[in-house]
Amino acid sequence: MSIEVQNISKNYGTQKALDTISFSIKKGEIVGFLGPNGAGKSTLMKILTTYLIPDSGTASVNNFDIETATKSVQQSVGYLPEHNPLYLDLYIREYLSFNADVYKVKKSRIEEVIQLTGLTPESNKKIGQLSKGYRQRVGLACALLHDPEVLILDEPTTGLDPNQLVEIRELIKNIGKDKTVFLSTHIMQEVEAICNRVIIINNGKIVEDKNLKTLVKEQTKQVIEVEFDKTISIEDFKIFSELVSVISLNETNFELTFESEKDMRSKIFDFAQDKQLKILQLNLKNKNLEQIFREKTSKK
């Protein structure tokens, strides 16, 4: 396993940031780590990159224990923290050259990561002259500099414009073909575009850990909102054997929940024709990742 976490806990005084969490990630997986603010995402990432020591439990990265093989973990991980620390007075190449010396990397690698992260147009500028999006690219370039086996990215697309978002997403997807990528984000579309697996954390506990396609596919219930041109009774909907529940929004507007793998909208059209009704609106409101996230992380 590229990342192995076993019963990790971390407290800040009386606040429990992580509560005995466990999971493993294989090489080649791109895993989205989701959770509301304060859920424990950054704390876990700092533990996996050896910046923090857990109160209990064990973890390894690339088969190196985070506490007994700290240097080996650091050498095999590329880390982009949420608040990207940069030397603003240095030119991009100066900054990458400094980090290349730290990692004992050949200087030819600097030009490779500049091209890889799309920094070429701005490569002659000081970091302080760059937009927030390009500063993120510098941080990503630094994380890639020593060609690590594992990338840990905390909010990697913060501050990027829509065009840059697409480019960085494609970059991360390509990197993930032969590396392990573990990234946190608040942008659900980003997870859907990049990741093949989702781990959701809430109040320091993992509340969901599934393959993204499986997670979405499991939402077999169809929620359909329909509005007719005439009044109709809830009793009329009992004709549908797949019907789970009916909510009357008003005399002509209903929210219907079905348990079916087939699209029930065609059956609603047939139903309306039989009842000599016109459909004024028909909306499929199936759960997406954002709705699943809200369900898993809402306060109960």
From TrEMBL:
Protein keywords: ATP-binding, Nodulation, Nucleotide-binding, Transport
GO molecular function, one term: ATP binding
Keyword Transport: yes
SUPFAM superfamilies: P-loop containing nucleoside triphosphate hydrolases
Lineage top rank: taxon: Bacteria
Pfam families for this protein: ABC_tran
Domain ABC transporter as annotated: residue spans: 3-228
Family to which the UniProt record says this protein belongs: Belongs to the ABC transporter superfamily.
PANTHER family per the UniProt record, alphabetical: ABC TRANSPORTER ATP-BINDING PROTEIN, ABC TRANSPORTER ATP-BINDING PROTEIN NATA
Protein's recorded name: Gliding motility-associated ABC transporter ATP-binding subunit GldA
Source organism per UniProt: Flavobacterium sediminilitoris
Encoding gene, per UniProt annotation: gldA
